[in-house]
């Protein structure tokens, strides 16, 4: 049991390191040669160019204006200044709403912390249970525990205070959640309504086009939609399996980088031609002349790319049974995306097309039939990942406890007994061990999501975030609580009754408060402060800048602003929601630590979003239902655990009153789901019609077809002109491709009856003349 | 533990009673004066008229042709003769598919029974565990148990046979289920495609029309759909709150019946005027002249009805914020029903309109906002109903056991010890006690569903069926297994671990086989045979015929053919699926009893559907996903219980192989859900377009508007001309009501911008002229 002094030390260390990070950041960001690392967003927007070239040489790299160093925390108010509307325009709705998650944390926990400290802490503190226990049973407890529910005697009437507070906290959380959901839904709808014309508003992704012996995929798609959406269909773009091509382009780029590196090296040191080895990473294999070797490689790849490009364009096998279909109106697209097209529900599957830059192209080539199997495999794999990853964590944590170390390595006892080291081990090691384990996890989860076949980056990230949260919940939260107190419980845990489980966990919760406090300080204070340093991009930028950059354009490419990283960031925030809600009634002493996290993270991420991150896509806050859902889960978990804890405290006359809470919370969730979620998954026809009508009135003669024609071309074809000059004909081919192809159908075997209508060039069905106007 | 002799006796009793029912049925149905009770379907179809009037008087009432009595089981082959296609035309798809549930039972269990008897029974029988136990531990067991898994020694390798058979049974069940789902989905689609023009194909029910200060609901609906579905909107019909009116009409009908009854009485006995009392059921209160009293009442009600009708038609408050909106094409209706209309997902809610005769009118008047609360209340109420209903059943059952009776009433011991009575108590009482309890349940569940606010009869019945099944599962199945063996276990049960529960139940299952066998015989054999007698309709018909019938039309109304009763029938079948699947591996001796049920019920219900039942609505087999889902649930339950049973048998090396089964089964369910369920909940646009196009080609000048105008008028207005003559003007009013009303809107506060377009009479939006044809 860590004492207040231990926590004080850990806090001091973490505050100090956060402070150091901020100072270093303040120094680094003012240096002109780091400008592109700390302000890439502005460069990408074209609002900032490289630092003035005119000044003295040193000025270009080092900021010698000492006045600017004095106000080293100046960036904080700057970050807070930009109003939200401007932020949405500057960085997109996703980023703006992402910041609202931190605000949500503050909105929920500031009043909660105030209430808890004014009511619960006095109620807890004015007992002497722990003192008595310490005197008679020789049970030691820390000062933190004196502020917690542990200090209340068994079967005390004071538990009513905790139950009433649990109700108050639940209602407050739900109230804030509801208001926030409403605000975000409105923001999303306004954002969608105010957006300028975008390809995804008019487009639908069709998958699983059935094979047809008479017609190509492109013809089939055209005929199908001309028949079934005659008034709305405009054009379409088939999906090519260009994964191999994309890989070749990537490989060529890598070779080009090596070539640039060696050329630069040669320019700087003309005396000897650079050499390289052909083997792995240039470390083994035959030694050859680097310049010749890489020039050859690049040329070879260029040829391969040209051949592959030719093949993709001409080979019908490289056309996937999928297409992006565009409509004349948003209304038509909304209708098509939200209805079933074909009698067989696994054919002609339509869904909203993601924003073009949001499309994850490699997965479009996955045949739809394998998707369910992939999902099953990944569900099983994730189950094993979650439950077997637990063993090493628990092992390390049991080592990192004082007893564990003394048992494993008794010779260390004299060192451990030194007060400072003891505090260090207790305050730091468990958190770090956990953190190290978790560093590699997001990548694994992202690979799993990719394998599952999601077709947009945003859905990939959302899926990974869900899994990451589940993982955190099972391993970090439950794992720390149970394994920390007794790893042996784990096995018996599976065989416990459902009413026993909350008791076991609930009982262990107050004891683990100090552990989670140190965890918050390491992960949530120092970790967030380190984020602003951008250490990895900084190093990579300077390495690239030194070895590869020849032109201004290269320097632009060397910037790696990164993005929010929803798949790791959001589960992290959610973990703090979980901790906060669980400990709000149990150990209110934990709340201030969480408040510091939310406040700090809000400022840091607002700064990063304004100055650094370059969001890859815009999903218009499609992630909010997930955020909301997970806070609700945390709320229900906190209620169940409080119930379990109370049950062990023999507060029999007050405990049953907690049962109504989860029921009410779940009902609240269902209400919110019905009321607000549709704004995130559907597109109301009224909105579509309104936007269509407005646009038609404003710009009656816009050529929509040319606008939509190439919106959903694989980026490898789009960026083609950057690399090669000989692909104009390919582009042209793409342009011509969707003029009307007369049907080559010889039999009607595979077509529904009305298909013959589509053989005429214009789909003008005879109108039924109603004899009365409505 | 019941012996083979007990079961034999019970079987004999039940077979005998079934036989008696059939003989009585054979005699009754041949009597001409019962013709309308046993062949009402043919009368309703107009294919059969009252028996010939020409013959001798006796002939009209009694069939004296003795040859027709000899072949008294003749109706069975007759019932099986009609081919399925004809059956669909004769009785609708719902009935035909309902019969397929019985066939499904036969398809699943016939091969299963054969396999189980050739493999499992020998494996079980060739052990002597029970003999040894009987010898050494003085544990008695019946002969049935010798054929069951109980006869296999602990930790025997023979359990492999059961596990392999569990796999075989699962795969067979899934195979049959899949094939059946496919067939039914196809039948549904073909039925929908081949149907002639029907109002519900073109109509959508809109609920929660927002209030508007400037426009009436009717105007608002018209403008909204003219704006948002300009090319497809045809007409609409607002929903009136005519519940009070319908009640008055019903009351008048009842009074009219009393009047008729007294008039008839007076005609038969002219000597004295009939008297009645004004109080409850004519039993108390002042004595008055019956004829005068009821004539007065009927006149008074007629006036009230006329006034109420006037009020409903003129008072804007009696118009609900809901409407049936009809479209020019099926495509337009399909689009509108399956998309969200408005930014606020709780306004302008659209869904398929049920078939006009399927609409449950009283619920259309429920404001939408109260629906979620009603659902929550009913969920809680159902929970309590399910878990508190359990106590009386368990109490009666424990009484009905021999020990129970001897304990409560020791003086009965000499009577009970008589062999015959002992068998009777064991074979009959538990089943009857249960059955009595369950008789009143469907009505309660139906009332609950109505309270929840479903708007179609079919959904009401489906919801009730789901609840009834859950109730049966918890109370009859689990209740009989656990309460029967030890009612005291129930309380401790809640506190058991999830891995203990299957063990507890699994262990008790083989012991309860004989109970369920008697249950099947009482409920499934004799009960089904009694169904064909139509006892209740027979009595009611003859009572009405005697007291009320004056004209041929009255006689027509006195017929009560009833309908299938999906809400009670389907859960009953499902219960047999559950029993069959659970006992297939444990006590195969139970399977033949279930086979007899399925076979007998199939024949009986086929006969009833052909000759008797008059289905109130046609939902085109919309219930099949529920049926499929519940069989899957039964399958998973059977697997879990087998797992639990095995775990208690110490078959440690073979038990883990069962775990894969539920996972595979659930995956199979998800696959089926994705593949087949959309056919039951959505309407593919391709189908809609095809049918539209075909119809347009065949009948280009049909006046759809006049066809749809009054399709969704409340039946109380439609049948108005039967009762009154003075309502022609009201009807006319209804006809005129939906001609175009120029907007009375003075402000634009509540309308979206494009609404002004709708002020012109024809919604001709300017077309955008694309410069290239797709």
Automatic annotation (TrEMBL), chains A, B:
<keyword id="KW-0106">Calcium</keyword>
<dbReference type="GO" id="GO:0016020">
    <property type="term" value="C:membrane"/>
</dbReference>
<keyword id="KW-0812">Transmembrane</keyword>
<dbReference type="InterPro" id="IPR045122">
    <property type="entry name" value="Csc1-like"/>
</dbReference>
<feature type="domain" description="CSC1/OSCA1-like N-terminal transmembrane">
    <location>
        <begin position="9"/>
        <end position="180"/>
    </location>
</feature>
<feature type="transmembrane region" description="Helical">
    <location>
        <begin position="631"/>
        <end position="648"/>
    </location>
</feature>
<dbReference type="InterPro" id="IPR003864">
    <property type="entry name" value="CSC1/OSCA1-like_7TM"/>
</dbReference>
<feature type="transmembrane region" description="Helical">
    <location>
        <begin position="420"/>
        <end position="447"/>
    </location>
</feature>
<keyword id="KW-0407">Ion channel</keyword>
<feature type="domain" description="CSC1/OSCA1-like cytosolic">
    <location>
        <begin position="201"/>
        <end position="363"/>
    </location>
</feature>
<keyword id="KW-0406">Ion transport</keyword>
<dbReference type="Pfam" id="PF14703">
    <property type="entry name" value="PHM7_cyt"/>
</dbReference>
<keyword id="KW-0472">Membrane</keyword>
<keyword id="KW-1133">Transmembrane helix</keyword>
<feature type="compositionally biased region" description="Acidic residues">
    <location>
        <begin position="722"/>
        <end position="734"/>
    </location>
</feature>
<keyword id="KW-0813">Transport</keyword>
<feature type="domain" description="CSC1/OSCA1-like 7TM region">
    <location>
        <begin position="374"/>
        <end position="646"/>
    </location>
</feature>
<dbReference type="InterPro" id="IPR032880">
    <property type="entry name" value="CSC1/OSCA1-like_N"/>
</dbReference>
<dbReference type="Pfam" id="PF13967">
    <property type="entry name" value="RSN1_TM"/>
</dbReference>
<dbReference type="InterPro" id="IPR027815">
    <property type="entry name" value="CSC1/OSCA1-like_cyt"/>
</dbReference>
<dbReference type="GO" id="GO:0034220">
    <property type="term" value="P:monoatomic ion transmembrane transport"/>
</dbReference>
<feature type="transmembrane region" description="Helical">
    <location>
        <begin position="575"/>
        <end position="605"/>
    </location>
</feature>
<feature type="region of interest" description="Disordered">
    <location>
        <begin position="722"/>
        <end position="774"/>
    </location>
</feature>
<protein>
    <recommendedName>
        <fullName>Calcium permeable stress-gated cation channel 1</fullName>
    </recommendedName>
</protein>
<feature type="transmembrane region" description="Helical">
    <location>
        <begin position="101"/>
        <end position="120"/>
    </location>
</feature>
<feature type="transmembrane region" description="Helical">
    <location>
        <begin position="468"/>
        <end position="487"/>
    </location>
</feature>
<feature type="transmembrane region" description="Helical">
    <location>
        <begin position="6"/>
        <end position="28"/>
    </location>
</feature>
<feature type="compositionally biased region" description="Polar residues">
    <location>
        <begin position="749"/>
        <end position="764"/>
    </location>
</feature>
<feature type="transmembrane region" description="Helical">
    <location>
        <begin position="654"/>
        <end position="672"/>
    </location>
</feature>
<comment type="similarity">
    <text>Belongs to the CSC1 (TC 1.A.17) family.</text>
</comment>
<feature type="transmembrane region" description="Helical">
    <location>
        <begin position="159"/>
        <end position="178"/>
    </location>
</feature>
<feature type="transmembrane region" description="Helical">
    <location>
        <begin position="376"/>
        <end position="400"/>
    </location>
</feature>
<dbReference type="Pfam" id="PF02714">
    <property type="entry name" value="RSN1_7TM"/>
</dbReference>
């Amino acid at each position: 049991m860590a004492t207040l002094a231990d926590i004080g030390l850990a806090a001091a260390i973490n505050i100090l390191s956060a402070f150091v990070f901020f100072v270093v950041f303040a120094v680094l960001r003012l240096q002109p040669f780091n400008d592109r690392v700390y302000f890439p967003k502005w460069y990408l927007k074209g609002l900032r160019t490289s630092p003035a070239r005119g000044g003295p040489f040193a000025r270009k790299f080092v900021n010698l204006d000492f006045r600017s160093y004095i106000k080293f925390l100046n960036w904080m108010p700057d970050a807070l200044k930009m109003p939200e509307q401007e932020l949405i325009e500057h960085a997109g709705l996703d980023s703006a709403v992402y910041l609202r998650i931190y605000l949500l944390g503050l909105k929920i926990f500031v009043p909660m912390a105030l209430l808890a400290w004014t009511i619960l802490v006095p109620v807890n503190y004015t007992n002497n249970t722990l003192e008595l226990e310490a005197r008679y049973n020789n049970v030691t407890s820390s000062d933190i525990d004196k502020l917690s529910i542990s200090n209340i005697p068994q079967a005390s009437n004071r538990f009513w205070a905790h139950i009433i507070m649990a109700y108050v906290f639940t209602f407050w959380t739900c109230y804030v959640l509801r208001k926030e959901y409403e605000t975000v839904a409105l923001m999303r709808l306004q954002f969608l309504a105010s957006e300028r014309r975008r390809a995804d508003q008019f487009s639908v992704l069709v998958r699983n086009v059935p094979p047809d012996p008479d017609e190509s995929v492109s013809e089939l798609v055209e005929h199908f939609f001309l028949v079934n959406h005659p008034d709305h269909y405009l054009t379409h773009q088939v999906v090519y399996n260009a994964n191999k091509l994309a890989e070749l382009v990537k490989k060529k780029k890598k070779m080009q980088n090596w070539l640039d590196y060696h050329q630069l090296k040669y320019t700087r040191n003309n005396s000897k031609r650079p050499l390289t080895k052909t083997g792995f990473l240039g470390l083994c294999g035959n030694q050859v002349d680097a310049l010749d070797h890489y020039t050859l490689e690049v040329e070879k790849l260029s040829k391969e790319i040209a051949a592959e490009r030719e093949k993709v364009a001409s080979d019908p096998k490289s056309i996937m049974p999928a297409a992006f279909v565009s409509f004349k109106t948003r209304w038509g697209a909304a209708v098509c995306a939200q209805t079933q097209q074909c009698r067989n529900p696994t054919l002609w599957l339509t869904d909203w097309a993601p924003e073009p830059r949001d499309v994850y192209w490699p997965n479009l080539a996955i045949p739809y039939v394998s998707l369910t199997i992939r999902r099953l495999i990944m569900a099983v794999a994730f189950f094993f990942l979650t439950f077997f990853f637990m063993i090493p964590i628990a092992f390390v944590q049991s080592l990192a406890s004082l007893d564990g170390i003394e048992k494993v390595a008794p010779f260390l006892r004299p060192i451990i007994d030194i007060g400072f080291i003891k505090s260090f081990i207790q305050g730091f090691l468990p958190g770090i061990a956990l953190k190290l384990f978790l560093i590699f996890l997001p990548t694994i989860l992202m690979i799993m999501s990719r394998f599952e076949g999601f077709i947009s980056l945003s859905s990939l990230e959302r899926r990974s975030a869900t899994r990451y949260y589940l993982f955190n919940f099972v391993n970090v939260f439950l794992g720390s609580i149970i394994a920390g107190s007794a790893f042996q419980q784990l096995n018996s845990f599976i065989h416990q009754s459902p009413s026993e489980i909350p008791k076991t966990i609930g009982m262990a919760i107050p004891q683990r408060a100090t552990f989670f406090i140190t965890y918050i300080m390491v992960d949530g204070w120092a970790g967030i402060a380190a984020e602003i340093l951008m250490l990895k991009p900084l190093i990579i930028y300077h390495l690239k800048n030194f070895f590869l950059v020849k032109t201004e354009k290269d320097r632009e490419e060397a910037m790696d602003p990164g993005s929010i990283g929803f798949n790791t960031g959001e589960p992290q925030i959610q973990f703090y929601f979980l901790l906060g809600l669980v400990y709000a009634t149990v150990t209110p002493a934990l709340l201030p630590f969480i408040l510091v996290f939310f406040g700090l993270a809000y400022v840091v991420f607002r700064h990063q979003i304004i100055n650094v991150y370059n969001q890859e896509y815009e999903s218009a806050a499609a992630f909010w239902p997930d955020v909301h859902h997970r806070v609700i889960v945390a709320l229900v978990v906190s209620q169940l655990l409080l119930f379990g804890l109370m049950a062990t405290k023999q507060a029999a006359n007050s405990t049953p009153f907690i049962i109504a809470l989860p029921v009410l919370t779940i009902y609240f969730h269902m209400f919110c789901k019905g009321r607000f979620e549709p704004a995130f998954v559907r597109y109301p026809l009224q909105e579509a019609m309104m936007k269509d009508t407005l646009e038609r009135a404003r710009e009656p003669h816009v050529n929509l077809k040319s606008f939509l024609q190439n919106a959903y071309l694989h980026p490898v074809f789009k960026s083609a002109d950057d690399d090669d000059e000989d692909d104009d004909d390919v582009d042209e081919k793409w342009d011509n491709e969707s003029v009307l192809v007369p049907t080559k159908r010889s039999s009607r075997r595979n077509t529904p009856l009305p298909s013959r209508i589509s053989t005429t060039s214009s789909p003008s069905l005879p109108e039924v003349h109603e004899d009365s106007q409505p």
